[in-house]
Design a protein that fits this description.
- By secondary structure, the protein is of the alpha/beta class.
- It folds into two domains: 79 residues, Arc Repressor Mutant, subunit A (Orthogonal Bundle), CATH 1.10.10.10; 214 residues, D-Maltodextrin-Binding Protein, domain 2, CATH 3.40.190.
- The chain has ten helices and twelve strands.
- Strands 3, 4, 5, 6, 7, 10, 11 and 12 form an eight-stranded mixed sheet that branches. A two-stranded antiparallel ribbon has the order 1-2. Strands 8-9 form a two-stranded parallel ribbon.
- Strand 3, helix 5 and strand 4 form a beta-alpha-beta unit.
- The longest helix is centred in the first third of the chain and has 23 residues.
Length: 307
Amino acid sequence: MPLRYDLIDLRLFLHVAEAANITHGASRSNMSLAAASERLRAMETDLGTELLVRGRRGVQLTPAGSTLLQHARTVVQQLQQMRGDLDGYAKGLRGHVRLHVNTVAMLEYLPKLLSAFLAQHPNIDVDLDERKSSDIMRAVAAGRADIGIVAGAIDAAMQLETFPFAHNLLVLVMPKRHPLAGRRRLAFIETLDHDYIGLGTGSALQVFVGQQAERAGRRLKVRVRLSSFDVICQMVEGGTGLAIVPEATARRWRRTMALSVAHLTDAWAIRHLTLCVQSVQSASPHTRKFVAYLRQYGPSIKRIVTR
């Protein structure tokens, strides 16, 4: 019996598989939970085998489900490429690019770049997610993200195509009257007896900084967690604690705030950001446009110089 899956079914299955949850997958598909469950059951009935193992904490793919996921991704990617190729003929068709980035790219670099790109390309939509660099590389390699921006070394086993994006330096910002203020260079371990202001617990950068403290046999004392580097700098000025931020952020706010800035002597404070894709040549036209834009206008042309 021939399979009767349509694109709505395949997109739903993709969303459910990526979220590992039927409720979240249905929401991403703009579909009710009941309708999504009915479609998934119909797919399994049509195939004659289970695609998902349903549990209290979500769903897992069966071997048949994993096979379908690979084909569904191929079909959807080919559709995206077709839409991009026809863009000049059918202005009503929209492109979709999935961009996964680390914390610094999300908060410091992407807002202006993304705003300008979207203004220039009204037919392209972008899904922007903040993730840890290791998770970003896996997502791009598996086809769950079209473009990634990561910090640190690239896993060669992923076989990704990469381009320099930014040379980022993490620095320490302090209130002017802090005991450590006035020091131009500090080792991270020298700061760990003092209170910190951090980003949210889900922030990739905050996880990274916490790991550096653990490697030193200490625990970061975070008094408050905030949503952006700019707000963090305001709290530092008020005397709440120390913070680790990109040098570009520190330079910007030091002009108008009473902040003391010190460079960290630790090697991990120098973070090279890299743009990665599976393959530019095989990517959708919309993804290729975005990659070209990020390479042309990204901050790599404004190399940060350590002092």
